[in-house]
């Protein structure tokens, strides 16, 4: 069984080249795809990397 790599806000912000406040607002508006933000300030880096490599984006599609 493989366990996902877990990261904090500061690690994810550094990897995505975003400020922590931008990342906070993305999480609060639920803009990240499902499974990236685990909760309690933790992120699933394995899922984040998959979304960037395979899908090209970490954001959900916006409803119109």
Describe it.
There is one protein chain. By secondary structure, the chain is of the alpha+beta class. 44% of the residues lie in helices and 12% in strands. The chain contains three helices and three strands; from the N terminus they run βααββα. It has helices at residues 9-16, 20-28, 45-55; strands at 6-7, 37-39, 42-44. Strands 1-3-2 form a three-stranded antiparallel sheet. Strand 2 (37-39) and strand 3 form a beta hairpin. Helix 1 crosses helix 2 (20-28). The longest helix is centred in the last third of the chain and has 11 residues, at 45-55. The N and C termini lie far apart (39 Å). The model has no long low-confidence stretch (mean pLDDT 90).
Structural class label: alpha+beta
Q: Major β-sheet, in short?
A: 3 strands, antiparallel
Work out the radius of gyration: 11 Å
Mean pLDDT across the residues is 90
End-to-end separation in angstroms reads: 39 Å
Note the run of SSEs as H and E. EHHEEH
The spatial strand order of the largest sheet comes to 1-3-2
Strand-residue fraction? 5-15%
Q: Tell me the total number of β-strands.
A: 3
How much helical structure, as a percent, in the residues? 40-55%
**pLDDT < 50 runs, ≥5 residues:** none
How does the overall form come out from the CA principal axes?
globular
Number of helices: 3
């Amino acid at each position: 069984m493989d366990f996902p790599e877990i990261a904090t806000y500061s690690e994810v912000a550094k990897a995505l080249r975003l400020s922590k406040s931008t990342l906070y607002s993305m999480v609060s508006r639920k803009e990240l795809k499902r499974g990236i933000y685990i909760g309690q300030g933790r992120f699933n880096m394995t899922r984040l990397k998959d979304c960037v490599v395979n899908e090209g984006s970490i954001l959900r599609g916006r409803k119109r």
